[in-house]
Structures are given as structure tokens and as C-alpha cells.
Amino acid sequence: MEYSILILILPLISFLLLALAGNRMPHKVAGTIGTLSLLAATVTAYIVAGSYFGAGRNADGVFAEVMPYCITWLPLNETLSIDMGILLSPISAMMLIVITTVSLMVHIYSLGYMKGERGFQRYYAFLSLFTFSMLGLVVATNIFQMYIFWELVGVSSYLLIGFYYTKPAAIAASKKAFIVTRYADLFFLIGILIYGYYAGTFSFTPQSSMLVAAGGMVPLALLLMFIGGAGKSAMFPLHIWLPDAMEGPTPVSALIHAATMVVAGVFLVGRMFPLFIEYAPDVLRIIAYTGAFTALYAAIVACVQTDIKRVLAFSTISQIAFMMVSLGVCTSADPHEGGLGYMASMFHLFTHAMFKGLLFLGAGSIIHAVHSNEKSRMGGLWRYMPITHITFLIACLAIAGIPPFSGFFSKDEILVACYNFSTPMGIFMSVVAGMTAFYMFRLYYLIFWGKSHYKEQLALYNSGNLDHEPHKPHEAPITMTLPLIILAAITCVAGFIPFGEYISSNGHAYTIHLNTAVATSSVLIAISGILIATIMYSRGNSHITRFVNIVMRGPIKAAMHRFYIDEVWLFFTKKVIFNCISRPIAWFDRHIIDGSLDLIAKLTQRFATIVRPLQSGNVQSYCIYFLSGALAIVLILLYMNDF
Amino acid sequence: MLLALWASRNIGQVRTVMVTGSTLLLLLSVYLTIEFISLRGAGHDEAMLFCDSWSWYAPLDINLSIGVDGISVAMLLLSSIIVFTGTFASWRIAPMAKDFFLWYTLLSAGVYGFFISTDLFTMFMFYETALIPMYLLIGVWGSGRKEYSAMKLTLMLMGGSAFLLIGILGIYFGNGATTMNILEIAADNNIPVGTQYIFFPLTFIGFGVLGALFPFHTWSPDGHACAPTSVSMLHAGVLMKLGGYGCFRIAMNLMPQAAEDLAWIFIILTTISVVYGALSAISQTDLKYINAYSSVSHCGLVLFAILMMTKTACTGAILQMLSHGLMTALFFALIGMIYGRTHTRDVRQMQGLMKIMPFLAVGYVIAGLANLGLPGFSGFVAEMTIFVGAFEVNDAFHRTVTVIACTSIVITAVYILRVVGKILYGVPVNEEHKKLSDATWDERFTVICLVICVAALGVAPMVMSNLISDGVGNILGNM
To answer: Domain range spanning residue B456?
Structure first.
């Protein structure tokens, strides 16, 4: 356990090294430093997690939380202080594995994907910074340390989205991502302040007497913290930054905006789960309903988007919402009685990180090959990119919930948890799961099947209607396909991990058993979703597709524009805050406040002009003033003497 | 040092003297800090250490008495860092470099004197010494509407001093006209409550003008916009801190009763400062105006925290002074360097500077991130300490204003990122700008020094925080 600090220090050193001296390094050296240090961190993380779970359970049957490091970073008052350290619990050990694995894959992948890009060293520096902050977030010993790394994660995300800083869309997206999440963090911060004041500590395990005494403030604090988590995890209506964040390099989307950072909100709720269950069951219901709505909303939007990365982005939003729902439907800490959702959520977080990372890296490989994000430029790619094709298909099957891929097992547990909560919730989420299968296979068919864009272009070129030879799509280099293969392998086997043995809501071992009814129905729904997609999209634009497009023109258009949520926000920020508040305040300041001070100055000056002639330097007039003054005094004195 | 400067003939000598002098001062204050911490560690727990006193004008009990506690040690350290880096930032000042540095040094002397005085009168005297050179520094070496701004700044600050003088006399006579020593007055604590009600607002406003308290902040944007780089640095970095320091040490410390009762008025004003400053920064187009309004917001937070009157919040206030001092100094230094090249400060006319001057641009991004309170930099530590401290006061009014003040962290992010996105990112559009060069060695040195300080305070805040809370504890203990 003593070496667990290495997991944090290695990426930090690599960041500092690359940030300070990166410009003088050749690309190869920078890439190697970043990747090797992360490889070492990954190995350490596996050892730490292995020895943590290997150490066995306590006498009372749970994995004890271990705190190998803790220092007082900033003492605040008699009771409160901000500590920094490492705290291992089952879910943080799991997160260590998830983050280092996906991050390592992304590091290797980027060696090929970002080859020759300007700012290659900067890219690796930011990746290391991100990995450091994300790891710091999951091993936080207290909620404030979590907040600190939470902010650092936000800024590394900002820097990476804006990596192509000459692209206006990337600049706008990075700004939007930072400000939206920062807005949510404001609530998180206030939540922490309330929590800290009433619990008398920032740690995750406060004294229950303090919380009981605080009464209604604890649920409020937890609700505010959830809003913070909703910002990072892109829950409706704070999801607007995530689709735009796809302007960053694709491996970054895989790491940050699919696998790790966006699940921080889920992790937060998971970390505070004992408090939620005990003091704020109502807040959990809010989480469940927000999550359910977000899942549906994002799934609908994902069905009509044409940009491959945006489809994946909305799919991410929808899947994270699944995790949130799963946490929200928990009614007790016992996994046998309504606490199943906790385990299911963490399980899904784990499997989703792997297959969504895989999907994004696959998308990156496709974009790399055709030089575009638009689906219209793809089609028929299976011939040219066999490895990408197979791995992408595996990921699609996993996310759709087809056995034996990992997504089936975790999603099934979520659905069981939903049915345990209430039947309508279960049915609702099953439908959304069916839509997931539909939009993923729509994407899959449009990319890999149908008419090949390259062939069309080539035909045009050969007939002389195109003046340049089209670029032939090709399979990616080994640095890019290797991560795809590894992640695909994990996706195939991860479902068989006895997850409940390690992580469950009360810490006791829980054996996962498939609920046959739910499993069968969810597989059937998934298959029907795939079938519909097959009918509509497997041969390019079929008649049915055209028919649907015409009948549903209105709703499709609305969904294309993401139901105008972005416009509502934009109206609010641009029109209301900027034009109706900030501008007038600036004007008010310059003209009213400053103006009135200037007015005072002017009046003083005017007055001075009036009295100035008095000091004319003319001795005669001074004489007259003096004499008349003296006379006046004498008169007054005489007058007063009379009385 | 002043004398040496006066004697020096040419620019080379002036520079040598300035560098030696400011380095010496920096070393001295570092030494003082270490010595102070070790003395505290050794168990010396008087309120002030290194006390000394010379009788100056016995009939009015005016003494030249000096002494330092944790707060003033921290402020002295800040001032010497800014003076030191400011010297490098004005390396190429012309014309009349000698006179410039003369006034510059006089200003710093006033600042140092202010922080070490423990006597009301000498403190006031040093305060004035620090203000007057500002008029000349802006009026002569400034740019734009410099005469107007210099006059406005001086008049408003002088107006503030007038309030202050009345306040100080009130304290002196209110306490029985026996001593001008702050420590003794605080220990006596026998100013009648009625008198406190009159003189507390006067003193607080008097210092508040310098601390950019709403609605007396309008000198700041104009003043900063026209001042030369190092003067902006020193002004925003150190001079504005005199306000907060004075409010705490004189107004609150000496008239605790009135402070407690009247705090709510000023809390409302400072809350307005915090939010209002940040909001008006959003729609400014001049880089220096943006920063000036940002300073209004951040300095508002200092006064806000002081008025909370809890130990944590006050520690946060002093930390915020340190952090804001370093950050704005960095900001103004960078703006000065960018302006020196592009000859414009209008954000609409610049784009893509990241490609042209990467060093300055990266520096600007770091300054921006520090300003919006990124963990790892000083701003975060200070703001969090303030917010936690302000939350300790458990009533609806304080809670509400704290939440309102918290929103500034979002608004700050908006205006910082807007500027970064507009001027640094993108493709260079202005042909003229493409030929510009990156930072020279003296500029790099300035920026690196300040960045290191900001990061050091952000990564290892416990040293400073302990030092400061020790001083704050003594003062609050009195109240």
C-alpha cells in the first residue's frame, strides 16, 4: 500500500517534465515519457488493487477502507481542515483500474493518432495532467480533496477540448464545457460548505449524531452535491457541453468524455451513497427521475444525429444516466433488499468505460481513415478496415446488451434494480435500452455497410467529374489497433467478473444471479432494436427509412437540434446575462456612479471659478476687502455690545 | 537606497541600484519571515515582535513605533516580491528613468513604512507617502488620458484620506488622547460606543476607497488603464492592500463594538462589489479595464471576509490579499508586455497571440486560471478559506450574502475565458502582429518569478496560513 502514492506521482512528474521541457523534446521522446510513466502507474494500480482485494475481508465481512497517506494541507478552523491523501475503498480501487487501463490505451493509441501533430508534447502533458487529477479524485480522502481534483479535472478537460486552439468551434466548445461545469460546481461547493459546517468534517464518514442534529440541511447539501455531479456527468439540463466537447482530439473524447471524467458524478454519488441512503432517500428519487429523463432524451437525440462522435456523445449521456438511475432506485443498503442498484451502477460504470472507450477509439480510427466526422463520408468501410470493424461490432453488441458481452450483464442488473423499484421504471428503462440497440446499429450500418463513399468518389474521378483522386481508407497502424484489440478482449470477458464479490452497497459479498425473465425480455428488446436498424439502414437508404423521415419530419428536426435546449441556454447567457445585466452594469458604472463623482468634481471646479477672482493679486481690492471686513466686524461687535 | 538612486548618473547605474536594492529588500523580508516563524516556534507569543519605538513629538504622543505580526510579515513579503519583479517589468522605461525609479522607490518606502508602523500617526504619514508619488507616476509616465486619471485617482484617494484623518483623530481623542499606539488603544478599548458609531464608518470608508469599495471604486479602472506597467503592478498588487489591511488593523481592531453593529451595511456594499465588479468585467473591451474590475471584485472579497469577523474568514482575507496581489501583478505585467508589442489593449483587435508570442500567452493563461481560482494556485486557497470562514456565521443574512459572493467564481470564469479565447486562441488576423517577438529575458524573469510565487502559495498554503492566522487570532482575540 505504501507505493500507492506512485500512482499519483508518476503522471504528475510526467506532466511537469513535458510541460516545462516538452518543447525541446522530439515527439518520440515526449510520447515515450508519457506512455511509459503511465504504464508504470498502471502496473502499480493493478498491484495496489490486487493487494487491496487480496488482503481479504474484515471480521465483519467487508473490505476495510485503507488510508496509507494523509496530511493536513490547509487547516481552516478548530474542527475543519482540508486534508490530502489516499484512501482506498472498493470503488476507488475499481476506479484506479478503470482509469489507468483506459488512459494507458489512449496513450498508446495517441502515439499513432496524433503523430506529427503540432503540439504533440503539449498533448501528452495535458493527458498526464488529466490522468493525475482523475486518479487524485478517486482516491480522495475527503470531499474537499475531491473538489480540488474535480476542478483540476475540469481544467485539463478544458485544455484538451481546446487543443486545436486555432479552430473557432474548439475554442467555443472548451469555453462552454468549462463554464457549464463550473456553474454546476458552484452548487457542489455550496453543498460542501453546508456539509462541512453541519457535519463538522469534510470526510466521507462523519459522526451520525452531528448529521441527525442538522436535520434538513443534510439532504440539501447532498442535493447540491448531486447538481455538481450532474454537471460533470452531463445530466439534463446541464448536458449541453458534452456533445460540443467532441471538438477535442478523438482519443481525448474516449478518455475524458466517455470513460472517466464524465462518470465522476456517478462516482461522487456512489462515494456518498451511505449518506444518501440514510439521510436523503428523497434526493435519491430525484436522481432516479432526472437520470431516467436524461436517458430517454439522449437516446432520442442519438437516433438522428449524423456526426459519428455526436451519436457516441449522446449515447454516453444516456448510458451515464442509466448508472444514475440505478443509484437512484436504491431503497436500502442491503443488496438483497433494494440495494442492488449500487452494485449494478458500478458494474455498468466499469463495463461502459471499456466498451465506450473502444467505440470512441474505433471512431477515431475511422475518422483518421476518411478525414471526416460525417456519416455521409463513410459507408462500406468493413472492407478496408477489418480490425476496426470487428472491434467496433463487439462494442456495439456490448452496449446493445447482447450476451455474452459485458454490457449485457451490467445492464441486466440495472434493469433488475429498476423492476425491483417499480414496474413502470423497469419498463421505461427497458425501452430506452432498446433504443440504445437501435441507434448503435444505425451508426454501425451507416459506417461499415451500405454504399462506399470512396467508391462513389472513385467512380466520379474515373469518369472525370472529380479533379483529385479520392483518398483510399486504410486500416490504422498497430499503435492504434492494439488498444482496440485489448479493449475488445476486455469487453468480451468483463461480464464474467464476479463483480458483486468485490463491490456491493453494504460491502458484503453478493453473488450475481441472472433474473431470467428480465434477461430474456431485455435481450429480445435489444434484438428487435437491432432488427429495426437492420431493416432501415443495412442497405443504405431504404424505402422504409425515407417513409419514416417524411412522416416524422417535425420530431426528427427537433431531435436534430437537440430539442433546442442549447438555444435556450444561449438565450439565457447571451441575451439575459451579457446584454441585460453585464452591459447595463458597465454603463451604470461609467455613467452614473463615475458620472456623479465627476459631477462633484465639476461643481467644485465651478465653485472654484467663482471664488477665484477674489485672489486677484490686486493690492487695492485686497485693501478694500480687508477694510470692509474689519468694518463689518466692528459693526457686529458694536451691535452685540448694545444687548 | 533613495540616496543612492539620486546619486546615480545613467540608466545603467539606476538599474544596478534598483536591482541591488530590491533584491536586498526581498532577502530581508524572507529573512524576517523565517526569523518570525522561528521566534514564534520558540514560544514568543506577544502580539507584535521586533517592536521598537522612538519618541517623535511628545506633546501629541506621536512615536515612530514599529513592530510586526503575522499579517504584516506576510504583507511585507508580498510588497518586496512585487517591488522586486516590478523593477524588472519596468526595465526599459523611458524617458527619465532615474526620476521614475525615484518616485517608485518612495512609493515602496511608504508601503513598507505603513505595514510596519504601530502608531496611528506614522501609519497615516506613510500612507500619504505612498499615495502622492502615484500622481506623478501616472501623470508623467502613463498613457492615454493620463492627466485626467491621475487627477481623479489622487483626488478620490485624498478624499478617502480626509475621512481617514478625521477617523484617526476621532480614535485618538475618543480614547482619551493619551496615546497614538495601536496596540495600546486596542488594549485600552475604552472608546465610547457612540463615538465608535461615528468614526468607524469614516475610517472604514477612508480605507475602503483604497480597497475599491463600491461605490468608491471608479478611480481604479481609469487609474490602472493609464498607469505604466510596474505602477499598475504595485498599485493593484500592494497599494490596494493598504485598504484592506487598514480596515482590519485600525477600523475593526480599534472599534470592535461599532464594527459588529454596523458590519451589515458594509457587508452589503462589499457583496455588491464582488458580484458587480465581476459582472461589469464581462463586457469590458480593454484588457486593463477587465483586470481593474476583476480587482474590484477580488478586493471586495477581502473586505467582505474581514467583515465576517471569524478567524477563518479573516485569515482567508489576508491570504486573498497576498494571492490577489501576486496574481494581478502578474496580470498587469503581462498586459503591459502585450501592450508594449501590439500597442493596443482592445480585445477585439487581437487574435491568435498564442502563435506569435507563446511565452506571454502561456503566462496569460496561467494567470487567468489562477485568477479564476484553479486549485494549485493561490486564488483557490484564499477563496475557499474565505467561503468556509463566512459559512461559520450561522444566520440567514450571512448565509445569503455568502452564497451570492460564491457566484463570483462562475462569473470570473466567464470573463477570463472570454479574453483568453478572444485574444490568445484562433488564427492571427492582424498582419502587423505577425512580426512581433516573444518575451525578452527581463520579462521572462518577471513572469516566472510571479508564477512561482502564485503556485507556491497554492501548493503549500499551510505555511502562510499558519503565519497569518496567528496574527489574525491576536487581533480577533482583542475584539
So the answer is: 2-478
